[in-house]
Amino acid sequence: MAQERTGVATLKSNPITLVGPEIKVGDKAPNFTVNKDLMTQVTLADYAGKVKLISVVPSLDTGVCDAQTRRFNEEAASLGENVAVLTISVDLPFAQARWCGAAGIDKVITLSDYKTKSFGEAYGVLIKEIQLDMRSIFVIDANDTVQYVEYLGEMTAHPNYEAAVEAVKKLV
To answer: Residue limits of the Thioredoxin domain (predicted)?
Structure first.
């Protein structure tokens, strides 16, 4: 049974339970397996040697998640080739592709945690009650060491975009 953390996050002020460990700066980034499309799985190793900005959203079809992904897509243009900007949600891969096409998202890589919830459990963001991943940000250096973490206390709140981008810029 995976570790559960209660009392650390809410959804519209209602307490939720997060499954998995709390990741901290300095930790070795846990591996994960997510889907790039319905058949293709990727892991942390697929982005080896790059700085990774991982933006976790519950669903791209909600306002804050939409805004968060659009913002990091804009920021990605100035971060360079050595940075992989990943957005992870539990949305199905074809829903992610549809949303990206409609929104003009072309610099962020969307990955789906729908199949095994591997990312959610490894990074402590799987919401037990609704099986979505909690909004959070992780910046991982080229050696797979966690350099920045933001777990949002309220699922509907925006992350600190500036702090996350600044953490990436310090690594490139």
So the answer is: 23-172
Based on the residue annotation, tell me whether 100 is a catalytic residue of this protein. Answer: no
**Residue type for position 108:** V
Alpha-carbon span 52 to 129, nearest angstrom: 28
Cβ 164 vs Cβ 148: under 8 Å: yes
Tens digits of per-residue pLDDT, 81-132? 999 999 999 999 999 999 999 999 999 999 999 999 999 999 999 999 999 9
| Token reading at 52 | 């990774």
Give burial (CB, 10 Å; 0-12/13-18/19+) of 95: middle
Whether the CA torsion 103, 41, 81, 56 is positive or negative: it is positive
Q: What does the angle CA 36 – CA 4 – CA 131 come to, to the nearest 5 degrees?
A: 40
Instruction: Express each pLDDT in 26-74 by its tens digit.
Output: 999 999 999 999 999 999 999 999 999 999 999 999 999 999 999 999 9
